[in-house]
# Entry
Amino acid sequence: MRVMKIPYIDLQRQYRSLGQRFEEMFEDIMSKSSFVRGDEVRNFEIAFSGIYEGYSTVSTASGTDALFIVLKCLGIGSGDEVITPAFSWISSSETISLCNAVPVFSDVDEKTYTLDPRDLERRITQRTRGIVIVHLFGQAAHAKEICRIAHERGIVVIEDCAQAHLTMEGGQFAGTFGAASAFSFYPTKNLGAYGDAGCILTANRTLEEKMRRFGNHGALGKDDHAIEGINSRMDSIQASVLLLKLKFLRRWNAQRVAHARLYHELLSGVREVTCPFVRPDTEHTFHIFAIRVERRDALKEFLGQKGIQTIIHYPKSLPNLPAYRRLGHTPHDFPVASRLEQELLSLPIYPELREDEIHYIAGNIKAFYLRG
Ligand SMILES: *Cc1c(COP(=O)(O)O)cnc(C)c1O
# Structure
């Protein structure tokens, strides 16, 4: 086989197809010189809310800020415990600590890699105030079941949708199950800006106003500081990029799903490889296509030699990171998460990836295991 060169993600392919339109929009913003919270930001908020009937969008400077603002404005604070998955990006737990609350990790489901409702139930205490569910990799996170468990006990549910733009569970969008949800528009996400950006989605008007204020120094209008807050605003350049890209989101997600299907087909006969499971009655949006494999590190090395870049999401589950040593966990406390950190390997899956590239990647994975 001829050696190809396939980066894990190639944002330039998308830029090449849309580049000129961005340049025209940027010129317009420069000439107006309205850089922060300009018309584009408001227009993006309206367009994004348009997908989620009855919901409002509060734009933020990043997905991490969005999570922090939600937790803070829900009143999560000192003495509270918030349950969150042991296997995720650190934003979903660090924002709990930032509110002076305690992140309580829960193990993930063996098949979906999202919070395991049974394990979660065991971690609920008198102090549990909230649960941050993460729709990891684009997979819906047992949202309905977890909301039922939470509501019976008066616990609030917050959704981390950073990897789940248009993911669905039971015909309902991820982001519409809890009290509020946080989205990230980091450049590599399914909907990505040209820098950091994020937003919050909520149907609760009172909470919306509080969050809008909190992210803008406590003010809605000029000098109207009802409370203290932070500076977390989306800028006009990012909003203009997102407004244009939003038109393509469904098409791009469908391309990701088609790529996932092809990977599944090509890898189905390989005993050492487990492809992502898609829960019935859900729509996975494949932000990440992580295969679960034997001899992961050797496979990664082999693919690298063949010009295929892969990434490990995540090399350490959260409780096993130095940042959480204070909680005194051992890998035995989270057996599934601790195995996943050794067995998952993420393959390239951006919309612009070509079929011949997927054949090449799958072919090399097969070759690696045939070789023994
Ligand atoms: C990317 C990501 C975030 C944070 O988003 P930023 O915009 O990078 O701050 C939060 N949670 C998860 C699961 C993510 O993947």
In short: The chain has a mean pLDDT of 96. The pocket of pyridoxal-5'-phosphate is lined by residues 62-64, 88-89, 91-92, 134, 160, 162-163, 184, 186, 196, 198 (CB under 6 Å). The radius of gyration is 21 Å.
